[in-house]
Amino acid sequence: MKGLIFLGGRQIELADVADPTPDLGEVVVQIKASGMCGSDLHPYRAAYDPSIPVEKRVIGGHEPCGIVAAVGAGVPEHVARIGDRVMVHHYFGCTTCRHCRTGWPQLCLPATRITYSATAHGAHAPYMKVAAATLLPLHESLSFEAGAAISCGTGTAWGALERLQPSGDETIAVFGQGPVGLSATLLASARGCRVIAVDLDEDRLNLAKTFGADVTLNAKSVNVPEALRDLTDGRGVEMVVETSGSSEAAQAGLNGTAVWGKVCLVGIGGKISVETKAFLDRQVTVMTSYTMSTVGQQECAEFIVSRNLNVDRLFTHRWNLSEAEEAYRVLDAQSSGKGVFLF
């Protein structure tokens, strides 16, 4: 089969890779949808290292969704049967540490942790071999594309909201209206929050309105912390989700948060500088959120089903694997919605 390999230097290759067969405790998933994530841009943009041969690299893609095609020995029927519609939690750990036991294998020790698309083959290929414990059922009302989104981007937004624990009457500012930010806007609105969407791109802000944003702010044209206070009678917002990875956005979120406010940092790559004294009298809580647990991924899917939320609207581009070079050029521009490879 052909699998997409990131070479770095904005180069990819559709390499010939052997069809996978499941070992003990594993399954092979026939991929139906493999989402493109903004974090794919890190290996895509990384420096090209010609000393690493293609056969030593792994297939990219960490938003898998599909159908169980083969089941290895030792996998109980209630865990996986051929034909099951499934999502994949794209981490697998030792299974015995307290993090793995509570559904957080991404927090397992790096020496024993597998991250599909980084340390093992991912989903940008027709078939993917995974540990059976990574599988989660895909509800019949959800498309494979929706399942792919929940497997990382939308699930990541859910994970951030679960860290913040909104009760439904808060004003929450969502910085960045890419796929993760739009998902946060959609989910926070559905949970009853008043959502202020922040971005630099007017098209994305207009899209955010259709996802439930009550107010939009273009950071190019307004002082965002001042605008957040103006919109909240001078108090600032109770909650912030920062999804863009921008240092400026993270700082603006901190500066626009109310007394006892909470800031959740999700975007990768940003840096913030904090003068402790300036925040002591505001009792601000700053936290991070790293994707979602297996339990959280399932809860996110169930919430979307129960509220009949249209996650498919996140996708503005659907690609065949043969179109991968163009697909990643579009993603690299970071001016569109979400992309997905369909098989």
Task: Provide a descriptive summary of the structure in words.
The protein is α/β, with parallel strands linked by helices. The chain contains eleven helices and 17 strands. The strands form four sheets. Strands 3, 4, 5, 8, 9, 16 and 17 form a seven-stranded mixed β-sheet that branches. A six-stranded parallel β-sheet has the order 12-11-10-13-14-15, sandwiched between helices. The longest helix is centred in the C-terminal third of the chain and has 14 residues, at 294-307.
Task: Quickly list its features.
343 residues; alpha/beta; Quinone Oxidoreductase, Chain A, domain 1; Rossmann fold; 2 domains; 7-stranded mixed β-sheet; 6-stranded parallel β-sheet; globular; metal-binding; zinc ion binding
Fill in the CATH topology of the largest domain.
Answer: Quinone Oxidoreductase, Chain A, domain 1
Largest sheet: 7 strands, mixed
- The sequence of SSEs as H and E is EEEHEEEHEEEHHEHEHEHEHEHEHEHE
Q: Please tally the β strands and state the result.
A: 17
Binned, the helix content reads 25-40%
Count of all domains: 2
What's the N-to-C terminus distance? 12 Å
The CATH homology group name of the largest domain:
Medium-chain alcohol dehydrogenases, catalytic domain
Shape: globular
Please identify, by name, the CATH architecture of the largest domain.
Alpha-Beta Complex
Mean pLDDT: 96
Number of discrete helical segments = 11
CATH class of the largest domain: Alpha Beta
Structural class: alpha/beta
| Uncertain spans | none
Rg is 20 Å
